[in-house]
Each structure stands twice: as C-alpha cells, then as structure tokens.
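go over both lines:
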Amino acid sequence: MPKGSGKQLAQNKKAFHDFAIEETYEAGIVLVGTEIKAIRAGKVNLKDSFARIENGELQLHNMHISPYDQGNQFNHDPLRTRKLLLHRKEINKLIGDTKEPGYTILPLKMYLKNGFAKVLIGLGKGKKQYDKRDDLKKKEAKRDIERAFRDRQKE
C-alpha cells in the first residue's frame, strides 16, 4: 500500500495553507489506553499540532484525541505528547533538515493502514503572505477554467 493511503481519519488543511511541504514521511504512533478506539471513532484533531525531535526521538505535540465515551478510568489526557515511530535514518535526516531556519515538522493527516494508526508527517517551510495569495489566485483560476469547461460540455 503506498504512503498516505488508507482510511483517512483526520487531515490538517491549515498545514497545506501555511507551509510549503517539501518532503513527507509515514510514521507510526505510540498510543495508550483507549486512544485507538477514540481515533477509530474519528475524534482526533491535528489543527495546531507539530512535531519536534527531543532526545533523538520524534514527539508529536498538541494533537487532540478526545476521551473515549465508554473509557471511564482508562481514558487518557487529550493533549499529551505522543511518540512517533520512524527509522533512525529518517530521524537523522529530519534533524539535519530542521536545523535550517524556517523549516518545521508537521502532521498532515492521520489514517488507518492494515489496522494500525499512521501519521503522515511533512517537512514544511513557512509561506509568506504573498505566497498564500498567489496560491489562492491559482486555485480560483483553475476552478473558473473547470467551470467554463463543464458549462461548454453541457451545451
């Protein structure tokens, strides 16, 4: 199965708007208690989350997984820091890339692949305001072209 494919559970649309994604990696995630049940129910939010390398390990911060409804005492802290699983070679490459100014590691989407929760993380460089405006103009122009083409097909 290719990287990034599977049953999609959450997507970080803000990351694509605010950052230019240069490289992506597929990472496993360490979960505790009832977190996987909450994730399967779709109660996960990647909006303000980011990844950071601490002590040679990749840690995911600010990812919100809501407590599972039937979890009672076995529930977890919704905003706890979670460890991401990558090969040592990939972590070393990320360490080198993030030392350059302007680069950060962001979760792009979360999905299930062969029964395991995976996170697609990307190495992103922050966009300037004018870059965001250019992207919106291109997107709008493409939409207009498709609309005109679709109208022409109907005639």
The helical segments are 13-18, 35-40, 88-98, 129-154. Residues 143 and 149 are 10 Å apart (CA to CA).
